[in-house]
Structures are given as C-alpha cells and as structure tokens.
Amino acid sequence: MTILILTFGFLFGGILQYANLNKFNTISGLALAKDFAVAKAILITIGVGAILLNIEVGLGFASFHTKPLILGGIILGGIIFGAGMAILGYCPGTVPVSAGEGSLDALIGIIGGLFGGVLYTIFLPSFQGLLGPDLGNITLRTMFADNYLFYFLVFIIGGAFTAFSFVIHKKEKANNFKWLVSGIALAVLNAIIFLTEVFDRPIGASTSYPYAIDLLTGITNNDYFSKIKVPGNWELIFLLGAFLSGFVFSLIRKDFKLKLIYSNWAEREGNSKTKRIIWAFIGGFLIIIGARMAGGCTSGHIISGGMQFAVSSYIFAIFVFASLMITGRLFYRLK
Fold first, then answer.
1. pLDDT tens digits for range 212-254
2. Dist. CA 151–CA 75, nearest whole Å
3. CA-to-CA distance for 257 and 302, rounded, in angstroms?
4. What is the pLDDT, as a whole number, of residue 252?
C-alpha cells in the first residue's frame, strides 16, 4: 500500500510540474494578478472531476468525503491561508514538489508549516470555540435528492466550472494550454483515489504537517493527533512521492538548482536572502494554521471538496482567493 501511495504522490507531483503549477512565480503570479494558470487548472479540475466523481458515486464505485461547514474555521482559516499562500508562493501540496526541485524558500516554508502544525496541536483546545458553529455537511446532494435532476445539475455546474476556466483563459490572452492538461489529469487522479477499491479518500496535504511534527516531538497523547493519525500518515507518504517527483523530474530536465529568490519576489521585495527566509517561514506557518482551522487546503478542500459540491469548500475557496488577491496587492505593493 505504501508503494501505491508513493506512486500516486509521484504522479501528482509530475502533473503539477507539467504546467509549472508548483512554481513560486506561478502561484505568486496569481496573487499579482498576472498569471491565472493555477485558477484555470483548479476550475477545470473541479468541473471535470465533479462529473467523474458523481458518476462513480452513483454507480457505487466511490463514496463522498465532504468537510463540514464549520463557519468560523472556514472563514478565518480561508483568510489566513490565502495570505500565507500569497507570501510563501506555494500551498501545502505544491511546496514539497518545489523543494524536490531545489527551491530553498519552499524548504523554509515546510519548516514554517511544521512549526505551525505543532503550535496548532498544542493550542487547539484554547481556541476551538472560535471555529464554530458546525452547520454540518451541506452539499448539492443533500439539497437535491439523488435523482435525474441532481445529475442534470452535476453536468450543468461541472460544465460551468469548465467554461469559466476558458473565459479566464480568453481574457488572459495566453497561448499555453498546459494548465488544461494538468487540470484534467488532476481530476482523473483524484477520481481514481476516491474509488473504494483504491484509497476511498480524496487527495489532501495539510494534515501531514501537524501529524509529522507531532510524531517527531512526541506530542501524540491528545484528541487532535488521534483524529489526524490515519489521514496524516497517508498524506505524508503521498507528499513524499510528490517530493521525489520534483527531484527526479528536475534531474531528468537538468534544471535541478538550489535557489532561494525568484523573479516575482526580487522585482517586488529585492534580493535580501534574510528577508525571503523570514517571510517564507511566516508564509509556511500561516498556510498550515489556516488550513488546519478550515479542515483542509487547496487540494483537500477546494479541489476535492469542489468536486463533491460541498458548500464548505466553496466558501473556503472564496475567502482564500479574496485574501490571496488582497494580500498580493498589499504585500507586494501593487498599484
């Protein structure tokens, strides 16, 4: 089973690399409103993936794993996560891929994320009340019975997500369609992972950070670690495969290079290594704190939840992207 998880993580990393979706310049480019590849890929993944997944569930080959609408955690977590994503230029699932390629700022981000993970475990009992109220699992399926109307809406909404990605592409006036290939590939990969006979779960990343650091520090005698132990172990192996993918493919491409500062950062924040290290650590810390408050990240919440038409995931996505764009404007001092 471990080898199979590693293999899927390796494929995940390769898919991201194909369209440069893991790169600092690509993700920060979205925060700077000059590169929409990540947004387009997410939309096409949700659009195609939603149709595939709901057909699988309807045929009895898969089951849903939606996240509840815990309103405070979703909103506050989304704001914190979006800010951290803009500053770091990576998210929990992309950062190990870039670290495998030699990105030192990604490695610093992972360290910041681990620090955030252990603090979240320690202090969760103190602020858990702020995360509520829990409004339950609200999805398209809970609002509409599993009937012909439901599946009609699945195709309509899935098609709308897909169409919106092309609308953005047209307005962006870009000629590169690698985002489309990667988006469809991510949808297929996630749909396979959802299958009952494969893993019976969605892709995820952020749970691995508190799991790994809690295990290393021995902070395991608590309810939170018991809750994340199983998914955290799966995600840690999955992200190890993604890291290996970044390393192997960068060697094959002959572009493996230890690098701390990328052009988007240098143009706005300068070439100070100390400054980039500090902010990469803070960004990594923020994305894990935000993701844990919301119960997931870009892959485990926005994409996987979006494929399941989970209201919690759509609200999280709205606050993440709003915070990402606002932070990009303020942090990078855009006019």
1. 999 999 999 999 999 999 999 999 999 999 999 999 999 999 9
2. 29
3. 31
4. 97
pLDDT above 70 covers a percentage of the chain that reads 99
To the nearest 10 degrees (0 to 180), the angle between helices 104-127 and 273-294 is 40
C-beta separation of 292 from 54 below 8 A: no
* CA atoms of 189 and 45, how far apart (whole Å): 10
- The C-alpha atoms of residue 51 and residue 234 are separated, in whole angstroms, by 25
| pTM of the complete model beyond 0.90 | yes
Q: Is the predicted pLDDT of residue 303 greater than 80, yes or no?
A: yes
Q: Would you state the structure tokens that stand for residue 66, as one six-digit string?
A: 């939606």
Domain that holds residue 87: 2-331
Answer for the pair 316, 287: CB distance below 8 angstroms, yes or no. Answer: no
The number of folded domains in the chain is: 1
Angle subtended at Cα 233 by Cα 20 and Cα 300, rounded to the nearest 5 degrees: 45
Interhelix angle 37-58/148-172, nearest 10 degrees: 170
Point out which residues pair with 310 in neighbouring strands.
139
DSSP single-letter state for residue 309: T
Of 52-61, 126-135, 235-244, minimum mean pLDDT range = 126-135
| The 3-state secondary structure of 27-43, one letter per residue | HHHHHCCCCCHHHHHHH
